[in-house]
Design brief:
Blueprint: H1 50-57, E1 59-62, H2 81-90, E2 94-97, H3 115-129, E3 134-138, H4 143-147, H5 149-166, E4 174-177, H6 187-202, E5 210-212, H7 215-218, E6 235-241, H8 245-248, H9 270-290, E7 294-299, H10 307-323, E8 327-330, E9 340-341, E10 346-347, H11 349-355
Parallel strand pairs: 1-2, 1-8, 2-3, 3-4, 4-5, 5-6, 6-7, 7-8
Antiparallel strand pairs: 9-10
Helix pairs in contact: 5-6, 9-10, 10-11
Length: about 350
């Protein structure tokens, strides 16, 4: 997700964004609970099982505004062991872990990632896997690589090589997602860079399930421009969905002009439902035509919308995705879009029921 951009209204439809509900951060845990042993990796499933691997992601939730912040806690969320317990006990199948590696890697070769940050990510992954949750680990907010792909390519690939090597022994319930929401980059340039990243990961993780994405903030409309290595059948394709944007991002403080949308409702009328179905049909058809499974990696409505509308929209998008054999991950757990109220220490029940009826 992208924060604190001032954008003109005509460009908003193509974008997907996030917010932060500031709460007092809790101190980070200092010890791992049931860390995952590198000896537990099972025999890799055949590539034909990529659709089963996607189905295994099932119903997920993003741990947004934490490790994706410039420094964990700066956006009001510091991960706790209880977060993972709550998510697992509620019945979610997976988490997506947005991670800003570029803020913790040296700017000069060999672009070493800070050991302490690696240990923190280790802890988060182990917390999830030890509770039976699948994990999608990505590179989030590396905007520099989109604006200057040639200048940042070596660093981008070096970061991925370090991540891939560190987690090569982890079970195949850990998925790698190449990058979050490519933007300010053409489809051709992104296709080339994404293919190089896949190759870099395959040096140490030949059988890892990988998640790949199109440009324009992971727009479903740009799936048609996505080109993938034909010989790699262990790829899951993701897109993000926040339409109608005037509803899902009404009052979003980090986007210019959204106060004028306050009060927008989503009532599940015929036109509203047809629009969502048309968009998801587009993505599902691309997946069928290209023989690739599809993962809806983000969708959500900001807290300035009324709860009845948020719950209706969330439930409809989730059920429609499931009907098209898409796994999904809601944006997000406990910040501005959150399904969990961290201050009250309780689930926002209408949203939780919408996601897990």
């Amino acid at each position: 997700m992208k924060r604190f951009l001032l954008l003109s209204i005509p460009t908003l439809v193509a974008l997907s964004l996030t917010a932060c509900q500031i709460v007092p951060p809790a101190p980070p845990p200092t010890a791992m609970t049931n860390p995952i042993s590198s000896t537990r990796q099972p025999t890799p499933a055949p590539a034909a099982d990529v659709f089963a691997a996607n189905a295994r992601l099932g119903r997920g939730v993003n741990l947004g505004n934490a490790l994706e912040a410039p420094r964990e806690g700066e956006w009001g969320v510091t991960l706790e062991a209880n977060d993972f317990r709550l998510i697992a006990e509620a019945g979610f199948d997976s988490i997506r872990l947005p991670t800003r590696w570029s803020a913790h890697a040296a700017s000069e070769a060999p672009y070493t990632i800070e050991p302490a940050f690696f240990e923190r990510v280790d802890w988060a992954i182990d917390q999830a896997l030890s509770r039976g949750l699948n994990v999608v680990l990505n590179i989030h907010h590396y905007d520099e690589v989109f604006k200057d792909p040639q200048g940042q390519e070596a660093r981008f690939l070096a970061i991925w090589r370090q991540i891939a090597a560190r987690y090569a022994g982890y079970p195949d319930t850990l998925y790698f997602e190449i990058a979050n929401e490519p933007h300010d980059i053409g489809a051709s340039a992104w296709n080339k860079l994404q293919a190089k990243a896949i190759g870099a990961i395959r040096e140490t993780n030949p059988a890892r399930w990988l998640i790949v994405t199109p440009v324009d903030w992971s727009s479903h409309r740009r799936l048609q421009d996505l080109q993938l290595p034909a010989d790699d059948q262990r790829l899951i394709v993701t897109f993000h969905y926040y339409l109608p944007f005037e509803f899902t991002h009404q009052g979003a403080e980090w986007v210019a002009g959204t106060d004028k949308w306050l009060g927008r409702k989503w009532t599940a009328n015929t036109s509203e439902r047809q629009n969502v179905m048309f968009d998801l049909d587009w993505a599902a058809k691309w997946g069928r035509d290209n023989g690739r499974p599809v993962y809806l990696g983000e969708f959500g409505a900001y807290s300035k919308a009324d709860m009845d509308s948020r719950a209706l929209w969330t439930a409809f998008v989730a059920r429609q995705a499931e009907q098209r054999d898409m796994s999904w991950a809601y944006w997000e757990f406990r910040a501005g879009f959150g399904v969990y109220d961290y201050v009250a220490r309780q689930w926002r029940q209408p949203l939780l029921t919408a996601l897990l009826p």
